[in-house]
Design goal:
This protein is of the alpha+beta class. The protein has helices at residues 2-20, 25-32, 66-75, 92-103; strands at residues 44-52, 57-65, 104-108, 111-113, 116-123, 126-134, 141-146, 157-164, 167-174, 179-183. It folds into two domains: 1-38, no CATH class; 43-183, no CATH class. The chain contains four helices and ten strands, in the order ααββααββββββββ. The strands form two sheets. The protein has a six-stranded mixed β-sheet with strand order 5-6-2-1-8-9, with helices on both faces. Strands 4-3-7-10 form a four-stranded antiparallel β-sheet. The termini are far apart. Residues 1-37 have low confidence and may be disordered.
């Protein structure tokens, strides 16, 4: 299980590398140690926003450690979802969609946009939640508010990666800075 945690940590860190900088594997293994099979030592979500110009849509993938997502939903009064087990709740998608809608907001070109929940996928110890923003025929600015897990963890980092056409930009959000703006084009 520790090996799985190390691989997942490397996956998260490599996606966040432009902001957080490289992390030596030996340091990561030393931090994790053999006793960390049930807990991770950092709190991060990775959000990837990609514009599908031919479909006038933003595809948003939110990758969150599954245990943290479930604990956040329980902390808000929701049920234990038991994601990715044979005991998963049938209404799990509704609870995940509600959590994301309460913690993630987008304004595209100065207009507030609604998220449409598109599902979720198992991603090792994480859950990849998929949402879409439709009717986006051009992108000049994206303002985002990301409060995912910041009520639960003081050190929560929410790394956001934007791919609009050939441009790639990153924003690192946290409890202190949970809003960010990116601009695209000339």
């Amino acid at each position: 299980m520790t090996t799985l945690r190390v691989l997942l940590c490397l996956l998260f860190i490599s996606a966040a590398e432009p902001i957080l900088g490289p992390v030596p594997v030996t340091g990561l293994v030393a931090v994790l140690g053999p006793d960390t099979a049930q807990a991770h030592v950092f709190y991060v979500s990775i959000v990837r926003v990609k514009w599908k110009s031919d479909e006038a849509r933003l595809d948003v993938s939110v990758r969150i450690f599954t245990d943290d997502l479930e604990n956040a939903i329980v902390a808000e009064g929701g049920p234990r979802l038991r994601l990715w087990t044979d005991q998963a709740r049938e209404d799990r998608d509704r609870h995940v969609a509600d959590y994301l809608a309460s913690r993630l907001a987008f304004r595209v070109n100065g207009v507030d946009r609604q998220l449409t929940y598109a599902g979720m996928e198992d991603a090792l110890d994480a859950t990849a939640c998929l949402v879409q923003i439709t009717g986006v025929d051009r992108v000049e600015t994206i303002e985002v508010e990301n409060r995912i897990l910041i009520d639960m963890f003081d050190t929560q980092a929410n790394v956001m990666r934007f791919e609009i056409g050939a441009e790639k930009k990153y924003v690192n959000l946290s409890k202190k800075t949970f809003r960010g703006t990116v601009r695209f084009g000339p």
